[in-house]
From TrEMBL:
Keywords on record: 4Fe-4S, Iron, Iron-sulfur, Isoprene biosynthesis, Metal-binding, Oxidoreductase
Protein EC: 1.17.7.3
Pathway: Isoprenoid biosynthesis; isopentenyl diphosphate biosynthesis via DXP pathway; isopentenyl diphosphate from 1-deoxy-D-xylulose 5-phosphate: step 5/6
Residues binding [4Fe-4S] cluster, per UniProt: C296, C299, C342, E349
Family, as annotated: Belongs to the IspG family.
Organism: Aquella oligotrophica
The organism's taxonomic lineage, starting at the top: Bacteria, Pseudomonadati, Pseudomonadota, Betaproteobacteria, Neisseriales
Cofactor note: Binds 1 [4Fe-4S] cluster.
Gene name, Swiss-Prot/TrEMBL: ispG
Pfam families documented for this protein: GcpE, GcpE_C
Domain of life: Bacteria
Name of protein: 4-hydroxy-3-methylbut-2-en-1-yl diphosphate synthase (flavodoxin)
Length: 405
């Protein structure tokens, strides 16, 4: 059982974040925010895939002006998901010049390293915090390895050089990340922003660095923490790196929101990062989002690819149905389905699932027993096993979870 690191609870739009609530899945658009239609469509896609908070870039005055329209378009589509504005360099100007941007965003993300330089930094940071206070909005103070406050880093490096046994550059940079986040949070509180309106993140791109930074950060504060590698990478590299880092921290009870910052392959849906985040949380038993399909990897006994195609088809079908089933059949996200390829583990895994099928392997009888809640229910055979099994799954969902409506 995972015991969560105790944090304040923060309300972000309709979503509650903090140790009293489940870990929240977040994502981010890659559209030009000035294109309100494209951005609203992508936000809707992410929300339907299961993203509970969506961040958008707000980098120009015109992008700020589009926030109200984006929210209205989402409302027309029946989408109610909190929108976070990601500000760098000119956020103070945008929020001041576009009151609707400040009003319609559900949270502001401020990067202390990009809020301003020299004497202007404190003034511009204060301006953004004051806007958050005026409109009663939470703020994520998001420090980033690639845009760390250089003045703070230089000061900490100078102090380190005076030590009898100086720390490594890596450790000093980790300490600077943490110090930047905590100092900025204290400044926000001094400016009147309540503690329960502040979230923190300290993002880096390497697994071991992320684990080290967040362990230290969690030990030093009670603010909700947003987890994620800042640039996870593309394909399996990004998925594996994110899973390796976040799983360790989540198991230690650290983390209140997560985002998987995958580089999409050309033409790949942005929703992939949402699916990976959900699968990390579900695999760890922290949350349930979609029925799980257990399937074997295949071996010499499973010379046919039939079970592979069926497992993929059923998994896709279940995920596609979830936007409807989530409202109609509460609890269906905890269902377990088994699609097995031979008699070795097939019957056993099928009996452990809510509903499972054991397909015939090489040299086995051309029949497929189906088990429902641990008991053999029917044996399928012929050319339409896949279609008949899907019907059985549909009927199981209606019968088992429909009673709860």
């Amino acid at each position: 059982m995972v015991i969560r690191h105790k944090t304040h609870n923060v309300q972000v739009g309709s979503i509650n974040v903090g140790s009293s609530y489940p870990v929240v899945v977040q994502s981010m658009t890659n559209t030009d925010t000035e294109d309100a239609i494209a951005t609203a469509i992508q936000i809707a896609d992410l929300a339907r895939a299961g993203s509970e908070v969506v961040r958008v870039t707000v980098n120009t005055i015109e992008a700020g002006r589009k926030i109200k329209e984006i929210k209205q378009r989402l409302g027309d589509m029946g989408i109610n998901v909190p929108i976070v504005g990601d500000f760098h360099f000119n956020g103070h100007k945008i929020l001041a010049e576009v009151p609707d941007c400040a009003k319609y965003l559900d949270k502001y993300r401020i990067n202390p390293g990009n809020v301003g330089k020299g004497s202007k930094r404190d003034e511009q940071f204060a301006s953004m915090i004051n806007m958050a206070r005026e409109y009663d909005k939470p703020v994520r103070i998001g420090v980033n390895w690639g845009s760390l406050d250089q003045d703070l880093l230089a000061q900490m490096l100078d102090n380190n050089a005076r030590l009898q046994s100086p720390l490594s550059l890596e450790v000093v940079m980790q300490n600077a990340l943490i110090e930047s986040a905590l100092q900025s949070a204290e400044k926000a509180i001094e400016l009147g922003l309540p503690e329960n309106k502040i979230l923190l993140s300290c993002k880096v791109s390497q697994v071991q660095d992320l684990i080290s930074v967040y362990r230290q950060l969690a030990s030093k504060c009670k603010f909700p923490l947003h987890l994620g590698l800042t640039e996870a990478g593309i394909g399996t590299k990004g998925i594996v790196a994110s899973t390796a880092a976040l799983s360790i921290l989540l198991q230690e009870g650290i983390g209140d929101t997560i985002r998987i910052s995958l580089t999409p392959k050309p033409g790949e849906s942005r929703t992939q990062e949402v699916i990976v985040a959900q699968e990390i949380l579900q695999s760890m038993g922290l949350r349930s989002f979609v029925p799980v399909v257990t399937s074997c990897p295949g071996c010499g006994r499973t010379s046919s690819d039939y079970f592979q195609k069926l497992a993929d088809k059923i998994q896709n079908y279940l995920r596609e149905q979830m936007p409807i089933w989530r409202e109609t059949y509460p609890g269906v996200e905890t269902m377990k389905v088994a699609v097995m390829g031979c008699v070795v583990n097939g019957p056993g895994e099928s009996k452990l699932a809510n509903i499972g099928i054991s397909l015939p392997g090489k040299d086995e009888s051309p029949v497929a027993p189906v088990y429902i809640d641990g008991q053999k229910d029917v044996t399928l055979k012929g050319e339409r096993i896949a279609e008949e099994f899907q019907v059985l799954v549909e009927n199981y969902v209606k019968t088992r979870y429909g009673k709860l409506v």
